[in-house]
Amino acid sequence: MGRTKSEAKEEGKKENKQEITIDEGFAKLQDILTAMDAEGISLEDSFKLYNDGVLLVKELSGKLNDAENSLTIVNEE
User: Fold this and answer.
1) Mean pLDDT of all residues belonging to the chain
2) At 2, is the pLDDT very low, low, confident or very high (cuts 50, 70, 90)?
3) pLDDT tens track for 33-69
4) Which residues of 41-74 are buried (b: 16+ CB within 10 A; e: fewer)?
5) Residue 33, by phi and psi: left (phi above 0), alpha (psi -120 to 50) or beta?
6) pTM of the model
7) Backbone phi, then psi, for 40, in 5-degree steps?
8) Which sequence spans correspond to the domains of the chain?
9) 58: phi > 0 → left, psi -120 to 50 → alpha, else beta; which?
10) For residue 7, how many other CB atoms are within 10 A of its CB?
11) Do 36 and 50 touch, CB atoms closer than 8 A?
């Protein structure tokens, strides 16, 4: 039996998503904030940017937690 539409969609998102570094993520987050502060931005565009920013913050939070866990393990050795 094949995949459901939602499974295929989720897999497509994972394949299209490129891994970014923490530094790249923060730079991208700064770009999002700058774009949101721009004069004349539409409400629709600001909602999209907000959503992109929230997703990016979640991704960066996971990366920072992973880095913290790695440092904790190294310090315990």
Assistant:
1) 84
2) low
3) 999 999 999 999 999 999 999 999 999 999 999 999 9
4) eeeeeeeebeebbeebeebbeeeeeeeeeeeeee
5) alpha
6) 0.69
7) 85, 10
8) 41-77
9) alpha
10) 10
11) yes
